[in-house]
Amino acid sequence: MRKVVIIGGGWAGCAAAVTAKKAGAEVIILEKTDLLLGLGNVGGIMRNNGRYTAAEEIIALGAPELIEITDVAARHQNIDFPGHRHASLYDVNLVEPRVRRLLNELGVEIRLETRAVDVKIKDGCIESILTAGDEWIGGDVFIETTGSTGPMGNCLRYGNGCSMCILRCPTFGPRVSISQRAGVPDILGRRADGSYGAMSGSCKLSKSSLEPELLRQLEAEGKLVLAVPPEDVNMGKLNIKVCQQYALKEFAENVVLLDTGYIKLMTSYYPLEKLRRIKGLENARYVDPYSGGKGNSIRYLSMAPRSNTMKVEDVPNLLCAGEKSGLFVGHTEAMATGSLAGHNSVRMALGMPLLELPRLLALGHLINFANEKLQDAEGRKDRYTFCGGKYFTIMQEEGLYTTDKEVIAKRVQDIGLKDIYRYKLI
Amino acid sequence: MQKILDCIDAGSAYCPCHLAETGECIMCSQLQGRTFCDCANWKGVCIYHDFVSNRYRKREQRESRSCRILKRDEVSEGLVLFGIEVGKEMARELNAPGTYVFMRDQASPAYYDTPMSIMTVEETEGTIIAAVQVRGVKTKALGDLQEKVEIRGPYWNGLLGLKYIKGMRDSAALIIARGVGQAAVLPAARKLIAGGNKVKIILDAGRNSHNFTEAYFQDLGCEVALKPLLSGKALEMPFETASYIKETIIQEQIGLVVSGGSEKLHQKVAGLLLTLEDKPFLACSNDAKFCCGEGICGSCHTRVEDGSRIKTCKTQLNPFSLYERRAQV
Fewer beta carbons within 10 angstroms: which end of chain A, N or C? Predict the structure, then answer.
């Protein structure tokens, strides 16, 4: 049996676990907090714009499990909000237990509250991972999905300080860049003004703090757009956001609320005093990040140089996925890169050639494109997602965007990759 | 690149300290001149955050103050136990394994400061007992004190491997101590017993005429054995003692060994544990030469396995990383 160790239990790590397990490996996930899914516990947006195509491609490639969970747990399907069409919003309170059950059923070993802090290198390869509890965990292949968010010092140096987000660094300890510990320097994302990092793009409010009639409307329609008082409109704030797909004029002149179990407020942060000046939000209260009135987490400070197979450069047995692997935004992007890394971990363990998804697929195109952009300074100022910004335009220009499931399935079939993730390699 | 190590003062009232101001922080990469986090060790607080919110300055540091000597007991020739009134707050902060204070005569300059382990603490009275072995210039000055003593503290890094002592529950531990080093491990026994552990003690009086801590250990309910731990000019561990320790570890299923005494003793104990198939954790008294206790003077620097230099007055280490290599030489 070949052992694959996944460091980080977010969407990317869970997706990698599913495909590595299906390809026949013994799989262990090391997660520093007491929850899987990481930022996925406060996200919730799926299938908007090009993410629809990407989700269907993941299914056609043979890894439908996580997409199915988010579909089943959707509070709203096929909704439109400014700049976005046919979105699906999963209930952030229901998805994590389902993913945990799925991984347990598949036989993935999940080690929660296990923070990876260092590596042991032998002959250039990672031999084992050291946990904060002083335990060495060995394996044949390692996948790093620790993300690029935080920790507290970074959120302070490049943001407004720790905003007490779902990653809960003070409680469970901060993430440590495993690739950097293995001797590969991290690549850093930048903002338009050249400063490092970018701020997470949304906050969550408690439902009971919203005016009851508006709450009824939000729960019925899935979205709500409330006008910002003219004196409080701040266009400059759009530049600091991670999520360029939401950096639209409408998002400055209004607050856009989405129903994801919490009320998802589509802005990086918003001073509570000001927020309460908006009609209907007089009692508003943050539930994530708790200090959403002051700031939000800082991301893209820790990306690993990689190939399009998700292999980290210069470490023969390390792969990466999710935000660790590029300037990606979103759950679908994490699942897309995670599934490929998980599948390739087994190929790597067996000495087989690694799979590279062709540019004929949206998944392969994004993974290639984001990697090219990571190489130059200007490219590091942008973010790459199927659902908006420059990349969605390119996706449309390339004819990759479609919501026709049959077309997508046929595309995957035609290039001979249908159900590739279902094949047991060991 | 500096190493990210475990600082005993991290997150305390004295953190961030001088080292943060000079880019020499033991734990924080941001305060080592780098611009990104690398929190391989973590104490639940962001030192960089505390430093920034304190306007890029260290916190107020420990200062010396005059304390009353309540009791002076010469238990053996050249070995004096001092009962000292330090105040309730300081007593509370010293009531843990591994604590020590710097002591000196009020009339002496600051470089007479001598680190002394805390043996017992009475929190409600605000008093401590510390043992002073009179040996050199500094301790001779202390040995003569009658009424007042200058105290600087609290300090916490008097034992290495503290996490094993604090984390051990419902298991069995063996404490091996010699000479004045017995004082340093008495609070460790207290903590281990509070954690539901069975604690066995092996004592050697060393240069002293008798084992001045024996009664204290017995009062705690520990089983005490008296054995020569180091003997002869070369200070070797007698074969019979080594066999006794090994047998005890195996028969009593000892999960942790605490060594109190000189580096020589720690080295011998570490060497002996390394011969065991299932080696217990090791904790030991910190025998480095402390002068300032603040990571400044450099007197406590030591080298670990990979050759890097460590400030042992502030850094918690697994004792094997210090003694494994030396034990094998």
Answer: N
Backbone angle region of B253, left / alpha / beta, with phi > 0 → left and psi within -120 to 50 → alpha: left
- With CA atoms as reference, report the closest residue to B224 among B205, B244, B202: B202
Q: Tens digit of pLDDT for each residue in B277-288?
A: 999 999 999 999
Length of chain A: 426
Q: Which of B1, B41, B42 to mutate to test the interface with A (most CBs of A within 10 A)?
A: B42
| Chain A residue with Cα closest to B6 | A132
Separation of alpha carbons A357 and A81, rounded Å? 31
Query: What does residue A80 show for φ and ψ, rounded to 5 degrees?
Result: -110, 145
Q: Please report, for residues A55, A411, B37, B241, the alpha-carbon distance to residue B34 in angstroms, rounded to integers and kept in the order given.
A: 40, 48, 8, 50
Task: Measure the CA–CA gap between A207 and A203, rounded to whole angstroms.
Answer: 13
ω into A289 cis (within 30 of 0): yes
CA distance B173 to B248: 10
Average pLDDT for residues B110-134, to the nearest whole number? 96
Contacts of A180 in chain B (CB under 8 A): 38
Question: Could you report the per-residue pLDDT of A309-322, keeping only the tens digit for each?
Answer: 999 999 999 999 99
For residues A117 and B79, what is the distance between their CA atoms, to the nearest angstrom? 45
In this complex, do A174 and B39 lie within 8 Å of one another by their Cβ atoms?
Answer: yes
Q: Which residues of A touch B (CB under 8 A)?
A: 115, 117-118, 132, 134, 150-154, 156-157, 161-162, 169-171, 173-174, 176-177, 180-181, 186, 188, 301-302
Q: Which residues contact B215 (CB under 8 A, 6 or more apart)?
A: none
User: E strands, A36-172, where?
Assistant: 45-46, 74-81, 84-90, 109-111, 116-122, 125-131, 136-138, 141-144
**Length of chain B as a residue count:** 329
Q: Does residue A358 contact residue A364 with C-beta atoms inside 8 Å?
A: yes
The string of pLDDT tens digits covering residues B94-109 is 999 999 999 999 999 9
Find out whether A280 and A210 touch, Cβ atoms under 8 Å: yes
What angle in degrees, to the nearest 10, is found between the helix axes of A331-350 and A51-61? 30
Residues of B with CB under 8 A from a CB of A: 28-30, 35-42, 44-46, 48-49, 52, 318
User: Over its length of 426 residues, how does chain A's per-residue pLDDT go in tens digits?
Assistant: 899 999 999 999 999 999 999 999 999 999 999 999 999 999 999 999 999 999 999 999 999 999 999 999 999 999 999 999 999 999 999 999 999 999 999 999 999 999 999 999 999 999 999 999 989 999 999 999 999 998 999 999 999 999 999 999 999 999 999 999 999 999 999 988 888 999 999 999 999 999 999 999 999 999 999 999 988 887 776 666 666 666 677 778 899 999 999 999 999 999 999 999 999 999 999 999 999 999 999 999 999 999 999 999 999 999 999 999 999 999 999 999 999 999 999 999 999 999 999 999 999 999 999 999 998 889 999 999 999 999 999 999 999 999 999 999 999 999 999 999 999 999
For residue A209, what is the DSSP state? Answer: G
Other beta carbons less than 10 A from residue A380's beta carbon: 21
Report the alpha-carbon distance of residue B13 to residue B47 in Å, rounded.
Answer: 11
DSSP notation for A258-311: EESSSEEE-SS---HHHHTTSTT-TT--EEESTTTTT---EE-S-B--B-TTSB
Alpha carbon distance A256, A193 (integer Å): 26
Using the beta-carbon criterion (under 8 Å), do B37 and A170 form an inter-chain contact?
Answer: no
List Cα–Cα distances, A246 to A150, A202, A235, in angstroms.
21, 10, 12
Q: How far apart are the first and last CA of chain B?
A: 29
- Global pTM reads 0.91
Nearest to A386 by CA among A339, A338, A341, A330: A330
